[in-house]
């Protein structure tokens, strides 16, 4: 998806273009060529819809999922697929083929792991790289560059191989704070003396990536928004065929992961009524957590000092906001889980047809249905409709704060009822389960040094009023929605504005271009709080029960 913004951070036009995806069990793959073609089509459409000539675009920023791209010395795709299909050169972020490789890496107890919450997820790049080396030897030897998708997009646009501190620090174990230590600290330890920890790569069996000054995984890194190369190359800018249709030399900023771009696009979107009056203005931002709610949800919080939080990724120095340490929680399936629950219910096709005929969404119909059920079932409030239905939403493992990729989803309270109303209850219980997961992450972060008291939400799910209200009620904090809901696009545009020198820094650009919209407050009804506290207790207990069941079955199979 592409967005075009004006100098006030207002969205002028946006467009999307479909991309192909291949799914085979735990293996999920895409094509970088296909993605580039989609980006080019979306850029041209967005400019057309906004009635803006490509020559008027002053800066460009890319953000993408933290997917792994393989290309050869000529920049051509190298397959990462069992199929051998050369188009399939991207291992998608949510691919879980490398679970065993992640376990092997985590058993090493390398010092770099303390900056990833104590363990690497199979969604990060080192386990995926190890999987390719162990299983696709020809692809491993052919690959000249391994890149995060957003870095590859910037490279494709500029020819500059510089990697982002965001991608390398968050997904590749690059120790970004080595730059800080060299400047500010006197107690520098050997492992923090340089960004890449060569011992780590050697120890996990990927020592060949150290060769050539880390040429295959990144010789140079930069802060997000740093201008790359000489801007757009002629090959990337030309209007014909599958290129961008923009001006040669247009500045391109160093990239961000999509969720982190959402953080940049929303984190300063606080109305004056909600802004905390603090002597240290740099501390205000440290009381906020951004929820980037899409297929998955990322939970972003920053601090001025590094906080080591078990089961939560980070601390990552300057990976989102320069000079701040980033803590990154997450739930691997949120929007994807709601789609799964709804689409696999027998009542779903009829509901989808009704939504289409009324030019509305399935979510809107379900929300309306739940409102009507309050009176029908004599429920004291909407949330209480699910008093007999409890969900553990770990259908794609638990990313945070338990960090258990083997965790499974659980439903407690199912009946033989197949009606639309029963689907509505399952949908509500799933939304609540997701919100309890976020509450668990927030409480865990605050117990380990954070001071979060305000949430900001963006992404597709943030457009769902029931989803946002349930989160506010369950977590107990106000949730601020930005004026521009497409915060990932705005964050990407901010990178372009910084690269074009329209602002002296990323944070100054955030303060100028972020803007608040609606504020959603938690319910003041003490019964609502009492109810959610009880359900949260059950939520926490479901995982403990799962561990017990897992242990019983493991003993039975010895």
The span between the termini is 50 Å
The helix content, as a percent range, equals 25-40%
Rg from alpha-carbon coordinates: 23 Å
How big a fraction of the residues is strand?
Answer: 15-25%
Structural class: alpha+beta
How many separate helices?
20
Sheet with most strands: strand arrangement: 14-15-13-12-18-19-20
Topology:
Layout: E1 2-5, E2 11-15, E3 22-24, E4 27-30, H1 32-50, E5 60-64, E6 68-71, E7 90-91, H2 99-106, H3 125-135, H4 137-142, E8 145-148, H5 149-158, E9 163-164, H6 165-171, H7 177-184, H8 198-203, H9 211-214, E10 221-222, H10 234-237, E11 252-257, H11 258-266, H12 281-284, E12 288-293, E13 297-303, E14 313-317, E15 325-331, H13 335-343, H14 348-357, H15 362-376, E16 390-392, E17 410-412, H16 420-447, E18 454-458, H17 465-475, E19 479-482, H18 487-499, H19 506-513, E20 516-520, H20 526-556
Parallel strand pairs: 5-11, 9-10, 12-18, 18-19
Antiparallel strand pairs: 1-2, 3-4, 4-7, 6-7, 6-8, 12-13, 13-15, 14-15, 16-17, 19-20
Helix pairs in contact: 2-3, 11-18, 13-16, 15-16, 16-17, 18-19
Provide a concise account of the structure shown.
With 558 residues, the protein is α+β, with helices and mostly antiparallel strands. It contains 20 helices and 20 strands. The strands form six sheets. A seven-stranded mixed β-sheet has the order 14-15-13-12-18-19-20, sandwiched between helices.
């Amino acid at each position: 998806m592409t967005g075009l913004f004006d100098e006030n951070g207002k969205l002028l036009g946006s467009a999307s273009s479909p991309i192909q995806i291949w799914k085979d069990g735990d293996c999920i793959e895409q094509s970088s060529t296909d993605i580039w073609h989609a980006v080019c089509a979306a850029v041209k459409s967005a400019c057309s819809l906004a009635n803006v000539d490509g020559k008027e675009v002053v800066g460009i920023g890319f953000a993408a999922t933290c997917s792994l791209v393989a290309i050869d010395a000529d920049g051509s795709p190298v397959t990462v697929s069992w199929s051998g299909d050369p188009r399939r050169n991207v291992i998608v972020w949510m691919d879980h083929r490398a679970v065993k490789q992640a376990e092997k890496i985590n058993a090493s107890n390398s010092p770099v792991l303390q900056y990833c919450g104590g363990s690497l997820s199979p969604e990060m790049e080192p386990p995926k790289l190890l999987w390719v080396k162990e299983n696709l030897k020809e692809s491993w030897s052919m690959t000249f560059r391994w890149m995060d998708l957003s870095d590859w997009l910037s490279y494709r646009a500029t020819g500059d191989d510089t990697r982002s501190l965001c991608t390398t620090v968050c997904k590749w174990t690059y120790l970004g704070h080595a730059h800080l230590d060299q400047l500010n600290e006197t107690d520098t330890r050997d492992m923090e003396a340089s960004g890449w920890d060569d011992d780590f790569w050697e120890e996990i069996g990927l020592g060949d990536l150290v060769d050539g000054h880390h040429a295959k995984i990144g010789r140079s890194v930069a802060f997000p928004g740093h201008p790359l190369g000489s801007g757009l190359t002629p090959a990337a800018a030309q209007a014909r065929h599958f290129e961008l249709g923009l001006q040669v030399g247009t500045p391109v900023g160093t990239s961000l992961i999509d969720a982190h771009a959402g953080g940049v696009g929303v984190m300063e979107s606080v109305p004056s009524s909600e802004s905390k009056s603090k002597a240290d203005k740099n501390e205000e931002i440290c009381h906020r957590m951004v929820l980037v709610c899409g297929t998955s949800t990322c939970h972003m919080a920053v601090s001025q000092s590094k906080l080591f939080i078990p089961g939560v990724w980070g601390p990552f120095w300057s990976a989102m906001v320069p000079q701040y340490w980033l803590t990154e929680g997450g739930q691997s399936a949120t929007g994807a889980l709601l789609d799964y629950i709804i689409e696999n219910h027998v009542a779903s096709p009829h509901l989808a047809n009704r939504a289409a005929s009324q030019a509305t969404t399935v979510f809107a119909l379900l929300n309306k249905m739940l409102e009507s059920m309050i009176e029908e079932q004599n429920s004291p409030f909407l949330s209480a409709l699910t008093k007999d239905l409890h969900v553990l939403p770990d259908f794609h493992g638990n990313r945070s704060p338990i960090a258990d990729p083997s965790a499974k989803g659980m439903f407690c309270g199912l009946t033989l009822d197949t009606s639309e109303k029963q689907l509505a209850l399952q949908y509500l219980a799933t939304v609540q389960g997701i919100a309890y997961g976020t509450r668990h992450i927030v409480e865990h972060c605050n117990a380990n040094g954070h001071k979060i008291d305000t949430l900001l939400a963006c992404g597709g799910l943030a457009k769902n009023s029931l989803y946002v209200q349930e989160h506010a009620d369950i977590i107990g904090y106000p949730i601020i929605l930005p004026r521009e809901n497409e915060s990932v696009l705005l964050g990407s545009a901010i990178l372009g504005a910084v690269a074009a020198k329209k602002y002296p820094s990323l944070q100054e650009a955030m303060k100028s271009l972020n803007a608040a919209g609606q504020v959603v407050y938690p319910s003041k009804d003490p019964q609502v709080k009492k109810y959610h506290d009880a359900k949260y207790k059950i939520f926490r207990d479901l995982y403990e029960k799962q561990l017990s069941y897992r242990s019983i079955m493991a003993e039975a199979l010895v």
